[in-house]
Design a protein that fits this description.
The protein is an alpha/beta fold and about 260 residues long. It has 2 domains: about 180 residues, Metallo-beta-lactamase, Chain A (4-Layer Sandwich), CATH 3.60.15.10; about 30 residues. Helix content is about 30%, strand content about 20%.
């Protein structure tokens, strides 16, 4: 099972575990494409636990066989602790009877992003690393990194061929190599310092203007002013805190002058 669903569904809907049970009575291995909230909602319902990508920071986060996806990782609330059934590493091959899947860990959208390739069927399951959706490619999360995104979009292209069919987690379910190539070319503009940004609003972060890199139907949204690693760094947070404190002091000082003037 690749991903565990989102909370964004009608009340009374079946959980992803219940849906999976409609198709098989065999044991299920759950693998998460990444840790964002809209991919992990029912993960704790899988009694067999979850298989995680093998990265040092993830292994370090496992305590007593449990891994808790933090609010920062999920870009939402902290998730319930997950039983860790095991790990898969970049380059591993998953054997499913008469079907095999190659595992790629492709940081960019997030550090833990996983892509699965079925070479026999020439199909690639990309999660959120690349998808075709009017909401655009999201690259404003704390773990987004354009340099890695560009490097790994090239790796994905080199790992597939002209006839590969790609399946993303959002929007149009199937797309061709041309869409991945377009993503790669737009990321090249960004990492080479030649983007054509404009500021827009995005429904996922109302009230905050974000930068948009657009080429026809390809929309890439990222953090304002600077790229995500700097925007979400402790130094940026210190600068925001300092300016916030200064703004509050100025408001206080202005209010004090006003009341002094009124009393006179």
């Amino acid at each position: 099972m690749f991903d565990a669903g989102s909370s964004e569904r009608p009340a009374g809907s079946k959980s992803m575990r219940q849906v999976a049970a409609l198709y098989t009575d065999k044991p299920i291995t759950l693998i998460l494409s990444h840790f964002h909230y809209d991919h992990i909602y029912d993960a704790s319902r899988f009694e067999g636990g979850v298989t995680l990508i093998d990265r040092p920071e993830i292994r370090a986060g496992v305590k007593n066989g449990l891994y808790t996806i933090s609010a920062l990782e999920s870009v939402d609330a902290e998730a319930p602790p997950l039983n860790v059934a095991g790990f898969i590493a970049d380059g591993d091959v998953i054997v499913l009877g008469n079907r095999t899947l190659d595992v790629l860990n492709l940081p960019g959208h997030t550090t833990e992003s996983i892509v699965l390739i079925d070479r026999a069927r020439n199909q690639t399951f990309t999660g959120d690393f690349v998808y075709k959706h009017l909401g655009g490619i999201i690259a404003f999360a704390p773990a987004s990194d354009f340099s890695q995104y560009k490097t790994n979009s090239n790796r994905l292209l080199h790992s597939t061929n002209a006839d590969t069919q790609f399946y993303g987690a959002h929007g149009i379910p199937r797309f061709g190599r041309d869409w991945v190539s377009l993503l790669s070319s737009e990321l090249e503009k960004i990492v080479s310092g030649k983007p054509e940004y404009r500021y827009v609003a995005h429904y996922l972060i109302p009230g905050m203007p974000v930068r948009l890199q657009q080429n026809e139907d390809m929309y890439i949204y990222t953090t304002p002013l600077v790229d995500p690693p700097l925007f979400w760094s402790k130094w940026a947070l210190l600068v925001v805190a300092a300016f916030g404190t200064l703004a509050l002091y100025l408001l206080y000082y202005a209010a004090r002058l006003f009341f002094v003037a009124v009393r006179r």
